[in-house]
Amino acid sequence: DFSNGDQFWIAYSFENETSKNQGVGGQVLREAGYTSKSREHEINVSYRHNFSPRWVNQLRFLVGHNDEPIFSNLESPQLIVEGFFTKGGAQADSKRTESHIDGTDFVTYVNGRHVLVFGVDVPDISRRGADDFTNAQGTYTFADIASYNVKSPAAFQIQTGNGHLVFWERTVAGFIEDSIRVKPNLSVVVGLRYYYQNYFHNDVNNFAPRVSIAFSPTAKSKTIFRTGAGIFYDRSGPRPIADLL
């Protein structure tokens, strides 16, 4: 906290998670399982500046990196004997990486019955990697144990080609919101948000208006009635984009 009312905040976070022997159980033997990992580093920064008693600017952003590899317990083709067991490798090898930044910069203006907030929101700007090496050594399916004993599979599947992919995802939004104290017991909030996401160039009409009302029967009542409506857009997420590319 600074003497002029400004405030600066910074934090570092680390997450590490490992899940072993996934997919094991029932007819799936342990050797046909896989291990998934997730490791994430993030630095969060926030800075608030008071221009005047009526104008305040808030800047917040984070930078981070995330790795999510999956390893098969055994590097070998998978063998499926219908109704008996699944052995060999899980053929689940893949890796997802993300180096990202997101942030928001918004201005708050207070004047009489109005509290006006407007700014720019960047939910995600990221460089993403998607390595898909699943079933790269192939999967043999046997109809029964007799077919397995004589090594006569009913089907064979394998994925070939270059499974490495790198792409950039960019999402940007602008917003404005006005909170109006119509009466001591009646408040109305109106707002508008606009979204943009690359890879969907024809989808440019993402204007999302919202409105909400808070009403109390009397100025000193302990009961408040609230209602609201709006249009809300969600991001597709990186996986459909990666699958498409």
Folded structure, characterized:
The structure is a single chain. The protein has 245 residues and is mostly beta strands. Helices cover 5% and strands 60% of the residues. A hairpin with a 2-residue loop joins strand 6 (94-111) and strand 7. The chain starts with 6 loop residues before the first strand and ends with a helix.
Task: Give a short synopsis of this structure.
The protein has 245 residues and is mainly β.
Question: What topology emerges from the helices and strands here?
Answer:
Elements: E1 7-22, E2 34-50, E3 55-72, E4 78-81, E5 85-88, E6 94-111, E7 114-132, E8 139-142, H1 145-149, E9 155-157, E10 166-183, E11 186-197, E12 207-215, E13 225-230, H2 238-244
Parallel strand pairs: 4-8
Antiparallel strand pairs: 1-2, 2-3, 3-6, 4-5, 6-7, 7-10, 8-9, 10-11, 11-12, 12-13
Sequence of secondary-structure elements: EEEEEEEEHEEEEEH
Largest sheet: 9 strands, antiparallel
Weakly predicted, low-confidence segments: none
Helix content: under 10%
**Count of helices?**
2
Please tally the β strands and state the result.
13
Oligomer: single chain
- What is the overall silhouette? elongated
In which order are the strands of the major sheet placed? 1-2-3-6-7-10-11-12-13
- Report the average pLDDT across residues: 93
Termini separation comes to 47 Å
- The fraction of residues assigned to DSSP E strands is over 45%
- Rg from C-alpha positions? 27 Å
Look at the helices and sheets and give the structural class: mainly beta
